Amino acid sequence: MTLEPEDIPAFLLVLASTLAALLILGFVALRVPWPFRPTAVEVGHAPLYTARVGAVLGSTFLSAPFVRVTTYDDFVVIAPILLRPHVLRRADGVRVVREELRGALPGLRQSTLVLRHAVPRVPEHLRLIPRVPDALEAALTRSLSPAPAERRLPGPS
Q1: Is 26 exposed, middle or buried (0-12, 13-18, 19+ CB in 10 A)?
Q2: CA distance 124 to 44
Q3: What is the pTM assigned to this prediction?
Q4: d(Cα 78, Cα 42) in Å, to the nearest integer?
């Protein structure tokens, strides 16, 4: 197959559109916040627990592999794909509440973890849907509950 002179404009058009598509995809891949990349807050800290979960962030629902939850000593990062990551700190007073959702069929249940908080930069309605709820609940509680020195001991004041 040879390239005839009359086919050169069509060939150049296909080549130019292919290069433009590759440039756009490269730009998107570099600029979009992907959940597997560590955020600026995470750099220099060792994670205690990481899980891929489903989540309801405000009015946005994302299924299981598209949200990364990583716990550290005194903060938690919730990094959804294509959205801004959210950071919850121990000092924010976040409560982890476990709820059971019942499905449409009898016996179908799903454990979810609701994070109750008053942090203005994080969606108010924040529900995590993990595959292993016990492990994530323990990790979130460890990272977000008050430190032992901050906890009040029962007894006379």
Answers
A1: exposed
A2: 28
A3: 0.72
A4: 11
Domain 49-144 has CATH 2.30.29.30: yes
Local confidence band at 23 (pLDDT 50, 70, 90 cut-offs) = confident
Closest CA to 136 of 146, 147, 127: 127
The dihedrals phi and psi of 141, each to the nearest 5 degrees, come to -65, -40
Residue 70: which residues within 8 A CB-CB, separation 6 or more?
42, 47, 49, 50, 76, 77, 79
Whether 76 shows a pLDDT value over 90: the answer reads: yes
Token output for 126: 């924040």
What the block records as the tokens of 54 is 């489903």
Q: Residue 28 belongs to what H/E stretch?
A: helix 8-31
Task: List the single range of 30-34, 85-89, 95-99 with lowest mean pLDDT.
Answer: 30-34
Helix (H, G, I), strand (E, B) or coil at 149: coil
Tell the residue number behind the tokens 């060939």, with chain if given: 11
Closest among 130, 148, 150 to 70, alpha carbons compared:
130
**Domain boundaries defined on the chain:** 49-144
Phi then psi dihedrals of residue 149, to 5 deg: -70, -25
